[in-house]
């Protein structure tokens, strides 16, 4: 266990490099400078005023749009505008919080930039990245919920497209729920202890906020406070969620799995779970590698059970993160029985099993009605690391059913021999996929008699799936991974 944990256990949360630091800056009552009277400057001025700033505009002339904005009594619902009908000068920057300019000439842009630097004021010159200390992102406004998107100036159109996508995901009613949360925060903090109790309350709050598209009714606040009272009186008890991480590609993770990872206090993860999936977990969660990889040193199942029980009884929310689907060769049954025996609440979030990922990657229907009347999943090794001794090879040799063999890299040769001995045609189509959906995925397609040699070429360093059945005849016809000049080719 100690050796396994030294590899990935308790490692700091991995954070990919950031082009810019996303910062949300309070401007209420602050003086900011906008130099220039263009429409572009007007948009930035309106944005700053919407944050409550006192916007001082320096420009001899204003466009019609900018003039109308300033002419509305020089007042904004949050901040206000002050128009100075002259060019900016260095002294107006002293004491300002931010400075923004729209400059046609490069020399003026450079002069404004250096004047702001000397005054110690963060500066942005519109559409001139070389003279910007900060940038404005594309905004989704559900204030107090604000989402800002940046592409570091590389592709503004992409940022706008992302904003449109997010706009469709976040209901307008989110504004009302966020305002309610803001108004209740101190009351909730007074009633509930930090940690599990508060998180449980806010998770239920979020469930309500996203349950429909309606703004919260007046009575909702009272009902939520009563719920907080009940939570404060309830004993702290944790729970365990078995979560399917899918075959490796983080984009195949379900929304429910994402939410479980974001709510976890402790994550016990298998070695096959990708770093990209772990990246989506709550940063503060304790992460513990518990092995579970065929043919390698693994944490004992009894130790994993003991850890889940220990953390759950301490009031923690535990996520048991498994590759693929927990209910497909994931020992979920053993873990559920153990937890239920201890009286610990447990639920399951299914994941995309590797067979489904393989079928989608190959463009093959596992139950194509012209080729198969069913599909079955079979383990390629037992607890002893060899083929299970109770497999019905005569039934498995039935060509009318597609069969997917999991964890079968080491036993591929014996599988082929047993099937042909039971009557399966040696030309039956076979596909082998290693590390399905991952960047290092490798594929082979051919016939049953060639499977052992192909397996030797692919190797067993990564998880291997073997698909056998007539439905894979399409792979034989279309894949460029078949035989080339009498040699078996493996596609990486």
How would you summarize the topology of this molecule?
Layout: H1 2-8, E1 31-35, H2 39-50, E2 54-58, H3 64-71, E3 80-84, E4 98-101, H4 106-119, E5 123-125, E6 138-142, E7 145-149, H5 156-169, H6 174-191, H7 196-209, H8 220-233, E8 239-244, H9 255-263, E9 266-269, H10 275-278, E10 286-289, H11 301-313, E11 317-322, H12 332-341, E12 346-349, H13 354-362, E13 374-379, H14 393-396, E14 401-406, H15 412-421, E15 429-434, E16 442-447, H16 451-458, E17 464-468, H17 473-478, E18 483-484, E19 487-488
Parallel strand pairs: 1-2, 1-4, 2-3, 4-5, 8-11, 8-12, 9-10, 9-11, 13-14
Antiparallel strand pairs: 6-7, 14-17, 15-16, 15-17, 18-19
Helix pairs in contact: 2-3, 6-8, 7-8, 15-16
Task: Describe what you observe in this structure.
By secondary structure, this protein is of the alpha/beta class. The protein has 4 domains: 31-136, 3-Layer(aba) Sandwich (Rossmann fold); 174-233; 237-352, Tetrapyrrole methylase, N-terminal domain (Cobalt-precorrin-4 Transmethylase, domain 1), CATH 3.40.1010; 359-488, Tetrapyrrole methylase, C-terminal domain (Methyltransferase, Cobalt-precorrin-4 Transmethylase, Domain 2, 2-Layer Sandwich), CATH 3.30.950. The chain has helices at 2-8, 39-50, 64-71, 106-119, 156-169, 174-191, 196-209, 220-233, 255-263, 275-278, 301-313, 332-341, 354-362, 393-396, 412-421, 451-458, 473-478, and strands at residues 31-35, 54-58, 80-84, 98-101, 123-125, 138-142, 145-149, 239-244, 266-269, 286-289, 317-322, 346-349, 374-379, 401-406, 429-434, 442-447, 464-468, 483-484, 487-488. The strands form 5 sheets. A 5-stranded parallel beta sheet has the order 3-2-1-4-5, sandwiched between helices. A 5-stranded parallel beta sheet has the order 10-9-11-8-12, with helices on both faces. A hairpin with a 2-residue loop joins strand 6 (138-142) and strand 7 (145-149). The protein is elongated. Mean pLDDT is 87; it is low at 1-13 and 480-488.
């Amino acid at each position: 266990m100690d050796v396994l944990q030294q590899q990935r256990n308790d490692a700091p949360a991995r954070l990919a490099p950031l082009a810019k630091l996303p910062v949300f800056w309070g401007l209420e009552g602050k003086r900011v400078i906008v130099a220039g009277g263009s429409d572009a400057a007007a948009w930035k001025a309106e944005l700053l005023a919407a944050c409550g700033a006192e916007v001082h505009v320096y420009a001899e002339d204003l466009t019609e749009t900018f003039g109308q904005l300033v002419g509305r009594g020089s007042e904004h619902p949050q901040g206000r505008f002050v128009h100075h009908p002259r060019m900016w000068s260095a002294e107006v920057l002293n004491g300002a919080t931010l400075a923004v300019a729209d400059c046609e000439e490069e020399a003026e842009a450079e002069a404004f930039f250096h004047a702001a630097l000397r005054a110690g004021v963060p500066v942005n010159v519109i559409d001139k990245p070389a003279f910007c200390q900060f940038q404005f992102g594309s905004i989704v406004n559900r204030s107090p919920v604000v989402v800002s998107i940046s592409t570091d100036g590389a592709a503004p159109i992409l940022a706008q497209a992302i904003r449109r996508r997010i706009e469709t995901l976040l209901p307008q009613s989110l504004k009302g729920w966020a305002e309610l949360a803001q108004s209740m925060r101190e009351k909730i903090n007074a009633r509930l202890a930090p940690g599990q109790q508060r998180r449980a309350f806010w998770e239920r709050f979020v469930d309500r906020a996203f349950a429909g598209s309606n703004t919260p009714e007046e009575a909702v606040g009272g009902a939520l406070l009563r719920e907080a009272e009940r939570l404060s009186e309830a004993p702290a008890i944790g729970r365990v969620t078995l979560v399917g991480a899918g075959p490796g590609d983080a984009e195949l993770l379900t929304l429910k799995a994402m939410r479980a990872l974001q709510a976890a206090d402790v994550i016990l993860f298998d070695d096959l779970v990708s770093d990209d999936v772990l990246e989506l977990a709550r940063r503060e969660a304790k992460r513990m590698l518990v092995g579970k990889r065929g043919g390698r040193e693994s944490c004992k199942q009894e130790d994993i059970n003991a850890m889940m029980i220990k953390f759950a009884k301490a009031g923690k929310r535990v996520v048991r993160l498994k590759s693929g689907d927990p209910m497909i060769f994931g020992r979920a049954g053993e873990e559920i029985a153990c937890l239920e025996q201890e009286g610990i609440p447990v639920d399951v979030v299914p994941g995309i099993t590797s067979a489904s990922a393989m079928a989608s990657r190959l463009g093959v229907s596992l139950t194509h009605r012209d080729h198969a009347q069913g599909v079955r999943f079979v383990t390629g090794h037992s607890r002893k690391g060899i083929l299970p001794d109770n497999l019905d090879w005569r039934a498995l040799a039935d060509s009318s059913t597609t069969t997917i063999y999991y964890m079968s890299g080491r036993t591929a040769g014996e599988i082929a021999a047993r099937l042909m001995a039971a009557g399966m045609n040696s030309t039956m189509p076979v596909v082998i996929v290693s590390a399905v959906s991952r960047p290092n995925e490798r594929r082979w397609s051919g016939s049953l008699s060639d499977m052992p040699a192909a397996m030797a070429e692919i190797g067993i360093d990564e998880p291997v799936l073997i698909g056998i059945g007539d439905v894979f005849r399409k792979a034989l016809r279309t894949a460029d991974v078949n035989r080339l000049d009498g040699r078996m080719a493996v596609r990486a």
